[in-house]
Amino acid sequence: MTTATRPQLRLTGQARAAYVLLWAFLLLNLVIVELMLTRPNTPAHNTLTTIGRVLGLHLGFALALQLLLIARLPFLDRRIGLDRLTGWHRWTGFAIFWLVLLHPTFVLLGYSQPGKIPILSEIPTLAKQLPVALGMIAAILIGVIAATSVRAVRKRVPYEAWHTIHLLVYAVIVLGVVHQVYEGSAFKTNNYTQAYWWGLWAFAIGALLTGRVFLPLIRNLRHRMRVAAVVAEAPDVVSVHVTGRDLHKLHARAGQFFLWRFPGHNRWWQVNPWSLSAAPDGHSLRLTAKAIGTTSAGLRDLPVGTRVFAEGPYGAFTATGRTRTDTLLIAGGIGVTPIRALLEDESLDGDIVVLYRVRTPADAVLLGELRNLARLRGARLHLLTGRTVEGNQPFSPENLRGLVPDITERDVYVCGPAAMTNAVLHSLRALRVPARQRHAEVFRLAA
């Protein structure tokens, strides 16, 4: 059968429905917000304070939307993918940052304009009011979170520290709600607008508590996971085998990841996203991690029997998202873990090609397992080694097409360092591989 006549799988309607539902929710609420601004409860002092009020209401809506994006609701995660939702969370976060700067700025300008008072002189006066002071504290915390989210800073901050700093978002939520109770006037036009506004916030907070607290607690009480074995795969790489009760009810799939905690071995706020490095069989789970941070380096010392608290499974980096029969799997470094699991997944049928990028053959973690699986599945495995220099760029468009001539007829899964993943995605776009056939896992996790 030629590549031109290979059958195309039907694109899942669940993912399309999730996108439609999310955009409909966003647009409907934006329309309601704009309508609320047309008839305020109390007139603003002047044009500047009117602009400040408009920005403030949009800031409140953006904060509520942010809660939904970080709630990790299974309905959205399994259809859209936590990584993509977290990407939207990142951009929403920067929108919030600018709204936090502009909202109080216009309010201060509006209050200082009539008496021609210097804007900075208005800050101590307004700060004496408790609701305003709480809003200022929330703004400072948002500034701290935004500063640590800048790529240049993010690369230099350990994941554990970055995640701990991002827990400040919960303090921002509390302070923001209190601030709105006393200062919000745009949504107090009548009982209907108030019911809508607080209903929106109740829904967002309820979704957050459900996805981040209740579901993880229920799942961990049900499954009672513990460490069954710890296996050194390389001097700086270790696999942890986890067992528990009724693990098949987790409905985990190859390519997904969990957020792992080891109570008693690490502090409760130390959590790391690690992919399953083997296709789940309903009886055990396996994660494989490289010693990069404090938590990952400490996995080697985990005692057998250690209690495991896992949130998940998360991610849409699975075979269910395929649109074509044949598949290309691309891994870089320790990013081989979900790729190795996908290669084991029997639902990934058709012709399979695997590209594994490492500096040296000694750096190729789980290479023996990949070779065995490739032999069993009839897949072609290419180990790509050496430094990425001008004469050795395996993921350039030309080299990718040379390795996989029918690449545009395949679904492509890529996981590895950010630079490698970006290079692959850039080449796939240059080769005109449709977006629906490109699948990437880069772990841009929210708090």
Q: Can you describe this structure?
A:
With 447 residues, this protein is α/β, with parallel strands linked by helices. The protein folds into 3 domains: 11-218; 224-314, Translation factors (Elongation Factor Tu (Ef-tu), domain 3, Beta Barrel), CATH 2.40.30; 319-441, 3-Layer(aba) Sandwich (Rossmann fold), CATH 3.40.50.80. It has helices spanning 13-38, 47-69, 74-80, 82-112, 119-127, 130-149, 151-154, 159-166, 168-183, 191-223, 294-298, 336-344, 367-377, 397-403, 418-430; strands at 226-234, 237-243, 257-261, 272-275, 284-290, 309-314, 326-332, 352-357, 380-384, 410-415, 438-441. Strand 1 and strand 2 form a beta hairpin. Helix 1 runs antiparallel to helix 2 (47-69). The longest helix has 33 residues, at 191-223. Mean pLDDT is 86; it is low at 1-11.
Radius of gyration: 25 Å
Helix and strand element order: HHHHHHHHHHEEEEEHEEHEHEHEHE
What structural class do helix, strand and pairing data support? alpha/beta
How many domain units? 3
Number of helices: 15
**Would you identify the regions where 5 or more consecutive residues have pLDDT less than 50?**
1-11
Report how far apart the termini are: 48 Å
Large-scale geometry: elongated
Percent of residues in beta strands? 5-15%
Mean pLDDT: 86
- Report the helical percentage: 40-55%
How many strands in all?
11
Largest sheet entry = 5 strands, parallel
Strand order of the largest sheet: 9-8-7-10-11
